[in-house]
Design goal:
The protein is an alpha/beta fold. The protein is built from twelve helices and eight strands. The protein binds ligand SI3. Belongs to the DapA family.
Length: 289
Amino acid sequence: MKKLYSALMTAFNEDDTINESGIREMVRYNIDHNHIDGLYVGGSTGESFMLSTEERKQAYKIAYDETAGKADLIAQVGSVNLTEAKELAKYAVELGYKTISAVPPFYYHFTFDQIKNYYDQILEGLDVQLIIYSIPALSGVTLSLTEFAKLFENPKIIGVKYTNNDFLLLQRLRSAFPDKKIYFGTDEMLISALPLGIDGAIGSTFNLNAARAKAEIAAYEAGDMKKVFELQDVSNKFILALIDNDIYPSLKLVFEEMGVHAGYSKAPMSKPTAQMRAGAKKIYEQYIK
Ligand code: SI3
């Protein structure tokens, strides 16, 4: 059975400090209402690249504590600062995370040998498994099939969170590495990834749209492609409306409509305007209520 993971958001107060109760509420919603298989903590959706090391640790700790073993957890520890990535990995493992993930080092156009060394160093001395976080559109780092093969030589690297719409590479990865886990990360293209044998999906919109995504996976597994298309069609109208309304703050605004106090996004992301609030209310009424 394919797994569905929500990419956990970080709730912030209006002054951009971490809002602990907001994170706890979103974890609970994912477990109690979405019956989610797992949570991806500290990724893009968690706004993690704007957080201090201590804030990133705080988010892992709150999520771990609130989840209390009721769902799988993956801590995204990647950073352009390898010292920070190693410290975060060690911290997450000490907390009890069994799986970590890391975006490749970005910004400086590192060589592949430097990228491989980064992953090997993060994992050195830790009893943990790692999922590569491949998101070329934001990280600027595109890994080839050969490069994935070299990274996968480290037995602790068990797979990839694949946020990339290169379906040729996805098919080649699946064919070459049947034993590695592949979690797809573009929620609006789930329909195209399902036939390529993904092990599941990890995404931001599953925080609110898990039931529809699960129904789509079930329809795919039952061979009902008409239903798969219909469900993805509604999901995509929902996702595109969120993107048009500024996705991360809007996911939180829709949560608020549902009585889940998800807080704010952190600057430089936007604080909600009246127009965004009205947009989120409309999205809630049209696609969630
Ligand atoms: O937290 C994370 O790292 C993610 O959720 C990544 C995930 O792939 C999301 N990508 C980004 C850039 O947020 C998607 O779930 C994305 O929000 C969704 O497909 C809408 O475009």
